[in-house]
Amino acid sequence: MKRLTFLFFFSHFFILGVFAEDNIVRTVQDLMDIRQKVSEGTDYSGSTIYLANDINLEDIDWIPIGTEGRPFRGTFDGKGHWIHNLTVKIKNGNYAGLFGYIGEGGIVQKLGISGGSIEITQKTSDNVDCYVGGIAAYSEGTISQCANLATIRGNKTHGNVGGIVGMLTESGMVEDCYKWGRIYSSTDYDDGTYLGGIAGTCDDGTIRRVYVSASIEGNSEPRNAGIAGQLGWNTIEPEQAFYDVDMLGFALDGELNDPRDGYSIWSFADGRLPLLTCMLELLKGDVNMDGQVSIADVTALVNIILGKDNVPPYLYDHVAANVNEDEGVSIADVTALVNIILGKEEEVTSP
Question: Which of 23, 37, 206, 233 is the S-S candidate for 173 at Cβ 3.0 to 4.6 Å?
Fold first, then answer.
């Protein structure tokens, strides 16, 4: 009897372990498998998917996770990791983002998007709405502690174009997120198209504790807003939402944190650009803040050391510039950064 009991529990935990392993994303193929399962009808409701490390989608034309008919309803926990070089070019469709459609109850959290661009190059029809967002094109769920550094581009008429989400519905929420970079349209817009730093349209959803440092460029000026291009009739005005229109960076003195419950998700250690604490160690050495460590960071670092006027003010104080973590920023940091890029040293991460 004891042996049968042992075998039962062993088998039970083995099965649980297998299923848990299936929900851990380590590679591009793992992420594609999740997308495929959602397209086949698995909505992951009640399940959590974990990102185990950074993912590089370079040279991949990404198809968004989830559709209106088959949305994602689970929890996607990025664990503070980044998805690099996300390229979404929808050539005949209406949803563009890492996620196409997050259903009610779905959660995407602690995830960063860096590099690449997200756009719809051709819609199914100019008479229907399209949705473009960094994390999700359309969301009825919650997007929390996420960052997007990728370029967002709208297309033609009837568009909802946002740095984090294209359309946020009444049941949806975006909190503790930031957008850094560019949001724009290259075509003339008619009535019904909205561009926003966080959401293209917030249709009575909730937006709070968000930060935008982005250029938002479109031809319908009243519809281009730092936080949301359009708010629903019953939408509560976004709380603790900040838009840095000139992308110069500024001290917020912790205003993004909620004094009622002592939020500490945001870091103001550099005194200027607020950052999500879950992303800090991944940005170490990323001097120009494009989400990756490359030769471009060497150029940015040299310009900082030389005191160039074209360097945004907040980069002078940013912790990422002190690559070797000594008492200041100097030529020694350039050497340390070059060695990281050449693979001669492990990348230094902040505590």
Answer: 206
Tokens of 101: 């459609």
**Which residue bears the tokens 């050391």?**
305
Query: Which own/partner contact pairs does 290-293 have at CB distance under 8 Å and 24+ positions apart?
Result: 290/114, 290/115, 290/149, 291/82, 291/84, 291/112, 291/113, 291/114, 291/115, 291/149, 292/82, 292/84, 292/114, 292/115, 293/337, 293/340, 293/341, 293/347
- So what's the pLDDT on residue 249? 56
pLDDT tens string 17-36: 434 456 899 999 999 999 99
pLDDT tens digits along 124-158 = 776 678 899 999 999 999 999 999 988 888 766 67
Structural contact between residues 287 and 321, judged by C-beta atoms closer than 8 angstroms: yes
Block residue for tokens 């850094």: 180
Which residues of the chain have a pLDDT value below 70?
A: 1-22, 126-127, 155-157, 186-192, 218-224, 245-254, 259-262, 269-273, 280-284, 289-292, 309, 311-320, 325, 327, 344-351
- Residue in the block written with tokens 């009610």: 104
Angle between helices 295-306 and 331-341 (to 10 degrees): 180
What's the Cα-to-Cα distance from 73 to each of 79, 131, 164, 259, rounded to whole Å? 18, 18, 18, 31
Nearest of 107, 102, 92 to residue 133 by alpha carbon: 102
Cβ(205)–Cβ(172) below 8 Å:
yes
Query: Which residue type occupies 87?
Result: T
